[in-house]
Amino acid sequence: MNYAYRLATLKLESDLELLELSPWDGPAAAQADVAVRFGKVPLRFETPDRVEAIFQTRGRDEYLLSLPGTGRILIRHGREVTVEPEADADPLYTRALLTGPMQAMLWHQRGLLPLHANAVAIGDRAVALAGPSAAGKSTLAAILARDGHLILADDVCAVDIGANPPRATVLPGVAPLRLWRDTIERLGLPLNGLRRALSDKEKFLVDRWSGCREPRRLAAVIVLARRMNVALAIERLEGPLVDRMLRGVVHMRRQARALCREEDVSAGLAQMTQAGVTVWRLKVPDDPGCLEQAAAKVKDVLEQS
What is the pTM of this model? Predict the structure, then answer.
C-alpha cells in the first residue's frame, strides 16, 4: 500500500493516489478499515445473484463493476476494493469512480445510507443538498461555503442512522468540491494551481473550504429541482411525498437493491424522518444567478428544522 487516507472515521489504505481524500492523521500503526488495491478482478462471478449490463452482485456484500474503456472494480464486505484498470484507462476517471459511486457502494455494504448529495455544516447541524448530476448541488454548496460555512461532503453524503434514540448523523466525506470552470470564475476564485477532477472536462477540485472533520446532526434534506421557466421557491414536503423524494436521492439505489439491501434503505429513510430530519423541495430556475438567492433559502430552512 502506498497511501493512507481518512474517509469519514475510517482509515483507507490505497495503491492509488486519491487526491480528493484527506491524508490519514490518526495513529500510523492503526489497522486499515478499507483497502484499495490493484489486482486481478474476475470477468464475472461464477454464481451471481444479479446480472445487469455493467455490474453483477453476489449475496449482500459482493459487487462487480465492468466498464469498457475503464476496467473492472470489485467491492467486497465494505472493506476490500480491487481495481483492474484497462491498459489505456484514464486514471482521473478511475479516481472519480472510486471517490464517487464506488464510495456509495462501500457505505451500502457497511450499513450506512448514502445520499446523492452535498453536505454543508451550518453551525452544529448539517444540510444535505440532494439531487441528480448537474442539479447545482456543488455550486450551491460553494456559495454557502464562501459565506462562512464548511463542506462536509461532496456528491456522496453518508448518513449514519441510529434507532435508540432515533438519530441521523452526516459523516465527513470527500471535502474538495468538483466545480466547473465557469462556476469558479463566477465565484471570483483563481484557477491557477487547481487540479482537474476529470481529464476531458473543465471541472476542477476546489479545496479551500474543507476542515469539518466531525460528524454533524442532519437537520434537513433539500432536493434541488432545477429547470427552465420556474420561479425560485422552496416548500416543505409532508406525507408519502417525503418517502418518494428521499428514495429518489439514495445514491446507487438500484445497485443496493441488487445487493438485497432495499429493506435496509427503507428502514434508514423511515428512521431519518423519525429523527426529525425535514425534507424540502427547492425549485431553482436554470439561471446560475438565482443560486445566490437559493442559498439564502437554504439557510432559512434551518430556522424551521
Answer: 0.94
